[in-house]
Amino acid sequence: MRKRTDQLIEELKKDSGSSAESKEEKPAAAKEKPSEKYVTAGLAALVALLLAFFLGMRLIESRSERLTIEPTVSADMTEPPQKAAPQSDCININTATRDELMELDGIGEKKAQAIIDYRNEYGPFTDIEEITAVEGIGSGIFDKIKDDICVS
Asked: Which of 4, 18, 30, 131 has the CB geometry, 3.0–4.6 Å to 22, for a possible disulfide?
């Protein structure tokens, strides 16, 4: 497109610099008015500018799609959810009584007592997953109660 624009400009320069005799050599029907050539060159230049503009916009859009940076959080940047501030409605397994522990889904009298015995023997739980070390509490029960318990 740029080449064509340059060609049109060169033709315009040649036509404006040519002598009156060369202009008279052309048949009257084949003559182009100088204003028509300028209009054609102007339109060609306008089309070239619009094309460059839209191609530039597409290039910018494609680069911005490739450069999109999604925020990521690595494991060392956050604490595990179970060490977050205790929720007001969770049961603290380090301080809960047998009756409070029995309110948890799947925890009866024997398992509640086993939690208290484990806590008395080994000290306070450091995180909620440690409760799976208590005899009778496996991953199935832990999955049921993990959202309802906390440690502090």
From this structure: 18
